[in-house]
Amino acid sequence: MSNEGYLGRELYSERMFPTKYDVLAYEVISRKTRVQIFQQVSSMLRTFTFRSKHDDIGSFYYGLMSNLKRRKGVTDFADLLSKASIQEMNRRSTKDYGVFSRDKDEGEFFKLLIYADEKDYLLILDMIDLLSYSVLERFKKGSSEKIDELINEVFRHNGIGYELVKGHVIHKGNEITHLEIIRPALLYLSDPLYSTANKEMLDAFSKFRENKFKDAIHQANKAFESTMKIIIHKNNWSIVNRNPKKKSPSVQAASANLLIDTILEHAQLNLLIDTTLEHGDLEKFHKTALEGMRNSLQTLASLRNAHGGHGEGNEIIETHKRHCEFALHMTASNIIYLIKTYG
């Protein structure tokens, strides 16, 4: 837990025996994790200021639960719980888990979050995702970042393989890959200039979380191409025309190969690169890097075509999942290089 403040101060056992997880959990989110999220978020929200003077905690949770029910196609939150979960909920008092308010909608949010089966991880993640986004929309600037940081700390402490980035739940995958590739790529794309590519990349992770691997690869491919188009437009480069008999296409209509050719031809080598290299070596390095990106795009297309269906059985699904993770990581790496070098 965070060391800041009374509620965040680590206990003796946490300081002496910090929890470390070699394998992160993705498809089980423990009740302990959810109780900690609700308790800490509930307390923190009451210290924030709403954007509108007409809002309060009650209206916040009313909007949150109304949105969730509409998205899930139900009229009662209990419709999203199993019979066993409802029976347990009816047996237990909400006081057992430390509810801080008797507001109806906050109570519903609490019950659904706590009593959902721990294996119903998609519902739980949807609730956390919607909670973070609602804070971003309803509270003043800076509030969402604090909530995301708090929830991420709870996730980390409990070995949960997800993280909130800019109000979106992201699958972490390998910890090092996530920290060094995925997170930086999303932070670069959070610049309003890259809003289109950012949305497509977030959609890719959303599809991945739903096991829609072909759609995830397709969205990653779109994010890759959108990033190149934005960079070309930002630098005011004209599209390379390999066929003088044909009119040069617009940036938006250009193929992926033309986009790479354009960047390769127009890019200036006046960046903060290792100056000990000879100019020819620099040019060769950039050409090699961009040719690698061309191959990456072809790989994405091949992966997308190869994942027409999910197949049956865990072995097939895990194979598709591994390929999709590779596609997402490869795309994120290329986006980081493009933006840092030319964007």
Tally of helical segments: 14
Provide the domain count: 2
What's the total number of strands? 2
Roughly what percent helix?
A: 55-70%
The structure class reads: mainly alpha
Radius of gyration, in Å, reads: 23 Å
Which sequence of strands runs across the widest sheet?
1-2
Distance between the termini: 37 Å
Which percent band covers the strand fraction? under 5%
Domain HEPN AbiJ-N-terminal: 10-184
Organism: Exiguobacterium undae
Domain DUF7014: 191-341
Pfam families: AbiJ_NTD4, DUF7014
Question: Which SSEs are present, and which pair or pack?
Answer:
Elements: H1 5-8, H2 12-16, H3 31-45, H4 57-72, H5 83-91, H6 104-115, H7 121-138, H8 143-157, E1 162-165, E2 168-171, H9 175-189, H10 195-209, H11 213-234, H12 256-266, H13 279-306, H14 314-342
Antiparallel strand pairs: 1-2
Helix pairs in contact: 3-6, 3-8, 4-6, 4-7, 7-8, 9-14, 10-11, 11-12, 11-13, 11-14, 12-13, 13-14
Summarize the structure.
With 343 residues, the chain is mainly alpha-helical. It contains 14 helices and 2 strands; from the N terminus they run H-H-H-H-H-H-H-H-E-E-H-H-H-H-H-H.
Could you characterize what this model shows?
Residues 191-341 form the DUF7014 domain. This is Abortive infection protein-like C-terminal domain-containing protein. InterPro entries: AbiJ_NTD4, DUF7014. Residues 10-184 form the HEPN AbiJ-N-terminal domain. With 343 residues, the protein is mostly helical. The chain folds into two domains: 5-172, no CATH class; 197-342, no CATH class. It is built from 14 helices and two strands, in the order H-H-H-H-H-H-H-H-E-E-H-H-H-H-H-H. The protein has a two-stranded antiparallel ribbon. The chain is elongated, with a radius of gyration of 23 Å.
